[in-house]
Each structure stands twice: as structure tokens, then as C-alpha cells.
Write a structure and sequence with these properties.
six-stranded mixed beta sheet, 8% helix
Length: 734
């Protein structure tokens, strides 16, 4: 490498490095990216379309940035390019086709920072007309034809279709805008061939118009199939048939061919030359026998078909039984018979009948007639008819022996109430259907037919008069026999609803003394059994419950007490209804002996109170006398005179003062004095004095009853006198 070249490379490296440094240092922000489709979003095929990607980018220096643009179609990358300018990026779609239809987006990437535009849809309409080419216009029947279909200018994923007179004969798929195929045309005629195509996109499929028609003339092959059947006249069942299949007008230069002989859908024989087949004629029900001879040359088929009718030698036998219904162990007759036969070939006596299974069958003496005893369970029979080596079997006859009715039962579901409907049930064992008949007192009431297993015959009846009734059921399940089953008689007692209820009380007076006996008797009109219940008002629990066949009952309370005072009533029910009596108010009074006892107790109490009052009065009088006696001692009267003598004698024998006798007007009064204790209570006031011990004595002056001295004051006057102890042991009054 020369020096100039090295210098250029060095300078270029320095430039790129400096540009990279500038770019790494420059700050930017992608503001928006917009995709614009020009000239418009909807265009026709062949239009040049421009996808313009416009980006708005803000930079810190204003210098260009390296930008990477990507065009996407239906989220798949179509094209990518890196540019260094800020100009719009443009992507050209030259000669746009339907395959270009889709959603387009533009993505901008600057140094890892990306932004995607909104999607814009491009619709390209119109496909070019396909062009068809054939390698020949004249072919022999069965020869191959090569066709080429071209979609000029189109691109994408293609499906090509080839048609013969509007009937599709081939289909080719691929990515090329042309397709080739080969096919064979059958039938000597003029054939019009054309093609079409479809282009598949991610969202839809777009079909093209038809191509040009190309006419092909097909020459018919001279070879033809030939089918022969012997005999060719009336054919009877069992006749031997000879059938041949061959090809005519075969030239030695013709391509190889193959023959096929079939009867309906059954292939009998194949071969490369004449085919022969032998068989016995067997008729098909309401259908003729169809034979087919086909020759195949170069995928070209030609065929010949014939139908023959085969006369049935005798009909398929039928197996019947008599009678049409049979019971277990009953003898029945089975008849095997072919209704029709070909009298030109056989007689009726030529037919032989066989019954299967045929163990221990008694002989009836007639052809095809068998006597059989019915088993206990279901069983099957078939029979066959045979003549001229031909054997035909009948359909299977299933025999289900019936069971006679037995264990017939009759029952009543509801209670039988006068003038109300009730249900009677009849049921028995046996084969269905079963006819039931109901009788009341040997008079028929109604009939029912039961056709389902475990179902009962349901009858409704009403009895309008009291008394006993007799019911029975009869059952029958045979149309050809008078044998019936009968139930036992069912006796029915009619329940008469209760009415006219009365409640009596013994004793008849509703006021009774304690200790007596009380009886309630409740009676009704109706039929039993009747359940009686006795209640006290306000209670839901009965005092007594009694069920009896009688129409009355009683409640006994003994002995009665005060607590038995209340209102009573009774209820009665017999399954038909319930009735209630009126309330009876019972009052229990106190016993006479208790009343006498209370009177005696009251008198004794009154006497005791009188005695206590007398004793209290005597006690008060005694206290008053004692107080009057104590009032005779007095120091001076309340209005003393100067000349009344007052003498007080005090005797002081010991440390404790004794009683002294004081004479006032020659009357003696006892005076008591008592030294106060040294320790007084907190409520008393103690006085301390330097004087000698002083005691205060209450002296009561008795008033004279002298009438000369008036007015007199009632009661007593209290005078307090001071008694002082002298050194000589005598007290002194001050």
C-alpha cells in the first residue's frame, strides 16, 4: 500500500473517530416519527408507491446524528437502512401489486433510542388476468394434456386452478406466478379449458378473473365393452347363469386394457381378455340383478350394464302362532308357510318345512304345522322352507308366555268418611295388560286397565249412608279366556263425623267444696273409635287422653282442691273431624270444718288480746300507786309558811348513806339518796368543789286534802335540797 493511500485511511479514521466522539457527547430527543404513503393509501395494481418516513429530532448541538430506519409490513421487517442526514427516509414500491396490501410502520433508532410510527394501511386493488397455454389442441381419448397458467406481473403466494368446462380438474400451489399441470380428457367431445388463481396475504385471499379459454378436441377410442348373460329369457330362482365380459374393436397397436365384471357393488372377476362367470340366480327383494362390464384404457373407462329379473321359486316362509297370546304351560300351534311359489317349476307338495329348535315336537299331521307347549320364560322359534335345493329361513318369532293373574289384593288408602270420596286400590301379579273390575255389595262400580308394571288400579267411591259395605276386585288378563282372579271381600265401616257435643258436670252445681269428687262427662254423636282430650283453659297439654269405641268419656278429679278452680273443656276426634265443647267454669270453695277452725282461732286470738289489755292496765295502776307512796317525802311545799315545822332526820351509818325518815306534818315519806359514781359518762357534767361532799335529793311534798286550803295544785312540786355531810356523820339540809 502506497503512502497516499495510508494517509487517506489515517485521515478518514481520524474523521470517523471525531464524529463518533461528537455524537457520543451530543444530547438528543426523538419527538415524533410519522409514516406517509404517497400518492395515497388506496391505489390500483401497477401504481408506484412511496413510503415516506418523517422524523422530528431535537439535538443539543444541531449537528447530524446517525439514524437507522426500518420499514415493517404486518409487524415483519421489510427493509432497513442507516443514514447520517436529517432528511426524510423514502422507501419505493415500484409497480405495487395486491400482495403489497397490508399495514406498514416506520421505526427510527438513534444510538439505541427507538420510536415507532402509527400504522398506515396500503390497499392495492386489481389482479392481472391469467394467461393459459396448452401443448396441444387435439388429443385422443385418454391422452395427457399439458397446461401452463401465468399471472403476469404478480408476486406473492399463489393457488392456481384449472377447469374443464367449469369443472375443476387440477390445483397447484406455489410462490411462482406461473404453474404447470397435466391431465387426461375423457369422452369424445369439444372441451374448453381455462384457469384462474388466488393470492394469499396475511389477512385475506384475493381471487383473479378467468383466463382465456383454450379449446381441445378429443377423439373417441374405438374400443367398447360387451356384456352377455345366458339364459337371456325368463330366469327362475335357482337357474344357472353364464355371464361374459369382453372388449371389441381392439387393435394390436392399442395400449393394454383391463376388464372388470361386477354385480352391484360386488366385484365378480377381472382380466385382460374375455371374462366368464357362472352363478345360480338368486332374486333380490323388489330389485333386479344388475351386472356391469368395464374396460379401462389409459385411465379412460367405458362400461356396459344389464339388469335381469329373477322369478322367485317360492317366497320366504313366515312363522305364526295360534292363539296370538299364550300363557305358561299352554299348548299353542306354530305354522310355517310360504305364501307364493312358481307353479311352472314346483308344486306346493315339493316344499319341506322345518322348525327350529325341533326337540320333542308332537306331530300335527299337516306340513308346516307344529304343536308346542309354552315354556315358563321367553323363547324363540324359526322355520325354514326348502325345494329344488333352495332353502329359505323365516324371521325369528319371539314368544313371551303370559302369566295368569294371581295374588289379587284390595285395600283402602284413606279413611272412609260419610259422604266423602275415598280411594280403593286393586293390585295383582300377572302379565300386562290387566283388566280390573270393582264391586260394591256385588254391584259393579267401575273398570280399569293397567298397562304398566307395578301400577295399581285406583277406584274412587262415596258412601252416603252409615253402615258396613262389602268391596271386592276381579282381575283378568286374557282376551281368549274367561279365567279371572278375585280378591277377598273387604268390609268397610263408615265413619260418621262427630257432632252435637255436650259437656256435663257431676255434681251439677259448679260450686263445690274442697275434698269432694268432681266428674266431667263428655258425649258426642258419631261413630268411634273416638279420642277424648280434656283441657284447662290456657294450657295446651291435655289433662287426660282417652280413646274409646263409645261416644262418651269422663274425667274424674278427686278430691278437689282450691287449685282446681278454673275453666274446663274437652275435644273429641274420630278421624273424620274434631269438635270442642263449651268451657265450664268450676269454683272450689273452702271446706266447712276449715271455716269453723278459723272462727275458733279468731275467738282465741281475741280472748288473748283482752287478757293482754287487762294485764297492761293492772300494771299501769300498780306503777301509779307506787309513785304516789313515794311522793310523801317532801322538803317544803311549793308555797311554804313560816310557821310550818320541817324536820329532817338523817342517819349516816356507814360510808354508804342509808335511807332516812323525814317527818313533814307528821307524815312519813321515804327518801333515797345515792352517791354519784366517781366516773361519769361523757354526756354528764361533773362539778368539782372545795366544799364537802354534797348530795341532792328529790323531795316530794304531799298536798293536804284539807278543803280549807284552796286553791290546791294537782300533782307534785319538785324541790331540790342540798344535803351536806357534817363531820359528825349527820346530814344537813340547806
Amino acid at each position: 500500500m502506497g503512502l497516499p493511500q495510508r494517509l487517506i485511511l489515517t485521515l478518514l479514521s481520524i474523521y470517523l473517530y471525531s464524529a463518533t466522539v461528537v455524537n457520543t457527547q451530543q444530547e438528543f430527543k426523538i419527538q415524533s416519527v410519522e409514516l406517509i404513503i404517497e400518492p395515497r393509501n388506496d391505489v390500483t395494481a401497477g401504481t408506484n408507491v412511496t413510503l415516506r418516513c418523517h422524523a422530528t429530532v431535537s439535538t443539543s448541538t444541531g449537528k447530524g446524528l446517525i439514524r437507522e430506519y426500518t420499514i415493517l409490513k404486518n409487524d415483519k421487517i421489510v427493509y432497513t437502512k442507516t443514514i447520517g442526514s436529517s432528511e426524510d427516509f423514502v422507501y419505493q414500491l415500484h409497480n405495487a401489486r395486491v400482495f403489497s396490501t397490508g399495514l406498514y410502520q416506520c421505526k427510527l433508532d438513534i444510538q439505541g433510542d427507538t420510536k415507532l410510527s402509527k400504522a398506515q394501511r396500503l390497499n392495492v386493488q386489481g389482479l392481472s388476468q391469467p394467461v393459459l397455454h396448452l401443448n396441444t389442441n387435439v388429443v385422443n381419448e385418454g391422452e395427457e394434456v399439458q397446461a401452463t397458467c401465468i399471472a403476469p406481473g404478480e408476486i406473492g403466494s399463489f393457488i392456481f386452478f384449472f377447469f374443464d368446462n367449469d369443472e375443476q380438474i387440477s390445483r397447484v400451489e406455489g410462490l411462482s406466478n406461473q404453474a404447470k399441470t397435466t391431465f387426461r380428457l375423457s369422452g369424445a367431445d369439444i372441451h374448453k379449458i381455462h384457469c384462474s388463481y388466488k393470492i394469499r396475504t396475511a389477512e385475506d385471499t384475493f381471487p383473479s378473473t378467468k383466463s382465456n379459454n383454450v379449446t381441445v378436441s378429443v377423439k373417441e377410442l374405438s374400443i367398447t365393452p360387451e356384456l352377455k348373460i345366458f339364459p337371456d329369457s325368463t330366469i327362475y330362482e335357482g337357474d344357472h347363469l353364464n355371464i361374459s365380459c369382453s372388449a371389441k374393436n381392439v387393435h394390436s397397436s392399442s395400449e393394454g386394457y383391463k376388464l372388470f365384471l361386477s354385480q352391484g357393488t360386488k366385484l365378480l372377476r377381472t382380466g385382460n381378455s374375455t371374462i366368464n362367470h357362472n352363478m345360480v340366480a338368486v332374486p333380490k327383494a323388489s330389485e333386479a340383478l344388475t351386472f356391469d362390464c368395464r374396460v379401462v384404457v389409459r385411465n379412460v373407462e367405458k362400461y356396459s350394464e344389464k339388469k335381469i329379473s329373477v322369478v322367485e321359486l317360492f317366497s320366504v316362509p313366515s312363522l305364526t302362532m295360534s292363539p296370538t297370546e299364550v300363557f305358561q304351560g299352554q299348548i299353542m300351534t306354530l305354522t310355517c308357510n310360504s305364501d307364493g311359489f312358481a307353479s311352472q317349476r314346483i308344486n306346493r307338495e315339493d316344499l319341506e318345512y322345518t322348525l327350529y329348535p325341533s326337540k320333542n315336537l308332537p306331530s300335527s299331521g299337516k306340513p308346516g304345522v307344529f304343536n308346542v307347549k309354552a315354556l315358563q320364560n321367553d323363547f324363540n322359534y324359526t322355520c325354514s322352507a326348502e325345494a329344488k335345493g333352495i332353502k329359505k329361513d323365516s324371521k325369528t318369532l319371539m314368544i313371551r308366555p303370559k302369566v295368569h293373574v294371581s295374588a289379587l289384593k284390595i285395600s283402602i288408602e284413606d279413611k272412609v268418611i260419610l259422604k266423602k270420596s275415598f280411594t280403593i286400590l286393586c293390585q295383582s301379579n300377572g302379565s300386562l295388560p290387566i283388566n280390573y273390575t270393582l264391586f260394591k255389595d256385588n254391584v259393579q262400580v267401575g273398570t280399569k286397565v293397567i298397562r304398566e308394571q307395578n301400577r295399581q288400579a285406583v277406584f274412587m267411591d262415596v258412601i252416603n249412608e252409615p253402615g258396613e259395605r262389602q268391596y271386592r276386585c276381579e282381575a283378568k288378563n286374557s282376551l281368549h279366556s274367561n279365567k279371572t282372579g278375585s280378591s277377598q271381600h273387604l268390609s268397610v265401616n263408615v265413619i260418621v263425623p262427630l257432632s252435637q257435643m255436650t259437656l256435663a258436670v257431676i255434681p251439677s252445681s259448679l260450686k263445690i267444696s274442697e275434698g269432694k269428687e268432681l266428674n266431667f262427662i263428655c258425649s258426642v254423636n258419631g261413630t268411634g273409635p273416638v279420642t277424648f282430650k280434656w283441657y284447662r283453659t290456657g294450657s295446651v297439654v291435655p289433662l287426660q287422653t282417652n280413646t274409646t269405641t263409645e261416644t262418651y268419656s269422663n274425667l274424674e278429679i278427686k278430691p278437689v282442691s282450691k287449685n282446681d278452680s278454673d275453666e274446663y273443656y274437652c275435644e273429641a276426634s274420630n278421624g273424620a273431624n274434631k269438635v270442642r265443647s263449651e268451657n265450664v267454669n268450676v269454683q272450689v270453695f273452702m271446706a266447712p270444718w276449715k271455716k269453723g277452725l278459723i272462727v275458733v282461732a279468731c275467738l282465741l286470738l281475741l280472748l288473748l288480746l283482752v287478757l293482754l289489755l287487762v294485764a297492761s292496765m293492772l300494771n299501769i295502776k300498780s306503777k301509779r300507786d307506787r309513785r304516789e307512796a313515794a311522793a310523801e317525802l317532801s322538803v317544803k311545799p311549793s308555797s311554804p309558811k313560816s310557821d310550818d315545822p320541817l324536820t329532817v332526820n338523817l342517819t349516816h351509818d356507814t360510808d354508804v348513806y342509808n335511807a332516812a325518815t323525814v317527818k313533814v306534818d307528821r307524815a312519813e315519806v321515804s327518801v333515797w339518796s345515792k352517791r354519784k359514781p366517781e366516773t361519769e359518762s361523757d354526756d354528764e357534767i361533773s362539778e368539782v368543789s372545795n366544799e364537802p361532799n354534797v348530795e341532792y335529793t328529790e323531795v316530794v311534798h304531799a298536798r293536804s286534802t284539807d278543803p280549807a286550803r284552796v286553791p290546791l295544785r294537782k300533782g307534785t312540786d319538785t324541790v331540790y335540797s342540798e344535803l351536806q355531810n357534817s363531820p359528825n356523820g349527820f346530814g344537813r339540809i340547806r
